[in-house]
Amino acid sequence: FGDVVVGSTAIRSVRLHNYGDLGVKFRFEIPAKVQGLFSVEPAEGFASPSDDVLLQVKFHPKSGSASEDRRDARSKRIRCVLEQGQEHDPIELIVQGRGIDQPDSNEKTYEFTSEVRSQHTLEVTFPPPPGNPTSEVWKLNPVVKTEVPANVDYWSCPAEIVVQPGGSTQFDITYRPLSMTSQDRPASSEDGSKKAVKRREFPPKHKGQIFLATPDGNAFMFKLEGTSLAQTTVKRIAAEVQCKTPHVQAVEVSNWLRESQRFGVKVNLVEPANAGEEIKLQGVGTFDLPPGIAKEYKFNV
């Protein structure tokens, strides 16, 4: 197999040929120390007389350290055992490969900027030139992870990416943040001056990654960085209310998180500014919502 990037899987096709006049059952016996590195599919089956069985031999190294490299580089023997009654010794399949760390050239960083609860999509060409160097169609399953903040999914991409032989393909990476990153904003100090302060509860940037392993033993890492800004769009609600008649106004509020939220609510009269007691707005100061629920907040006019 040669050098294979840790975390990826290199695949080689092997044909098992039955030269006899009778069909035979077979199974592969892989030593315990080798099972974590190599595998054969199918691990057992039936070979018809004078026929071939197409096997896929896979190498999936777990470590790229120097000590592990030396162990990986040694030849390993996998036995193919024929069913009882056949006068044939087990067949040996000799496999060899070495796990290596991911090359820096296979890492790339993409930056995203979006308003919170909106989205930003980038189109990516994969793999880079010369593309898919094999004669086989690649069907790849990217592993997407949001690292900061933890336990959320702010990035997404297609679950399967198909790459034709000798070519490349395009796919979209979408960033949809549900929380903000920290922003410098003016705040008054004790002496009345203004200076920039940061909201410590938010990280400077959201971070994630996409890992793509290819069947030729290579692997690619896309590092993702996102900046989430405050929303600039303002929702306006219009209502006609008869003079001197109480009115209850409803505003739909959604909880976009996977956890309960308590919203702080401020209801202020902006115009006319000097209404005094003629126009009063009254509403509770907090509003609780379970995760993923939309509900109406109501206030009195």
Automatic annotation (TrEMBL):
Per the record, its GO cellular-component terms are: axoneme
Question: What GO biological process, any one, is recorded here?
Answer: cilium movement
- Region Disordered: list its residue ranges: 179-201
Print the organism lineage.
Eukaryota, Sar, Alveolata, Dinophyceae, Noctilucales
The superkingdom of the source organism is: Eukaryota
Q: Which InterPro entries match?
A: Hydin-like, Ig-like_fold, Ig_CFAP65_7th
Q: Which Gene3D superfamilies match?
A: Immunoglobulins
What is the protein name for this chain? Answer: CFAP65 seventh Ig-like domain-containing protein
- Positions the record marks as coiled coil are none
Give the Pfam families listed for this entry: Ig_CFAP65_7th
Q: Give the CFAP65 seventh Ig-like domain ranges.
A: 6-64
Basic and acidic residues bias spans:
187-201
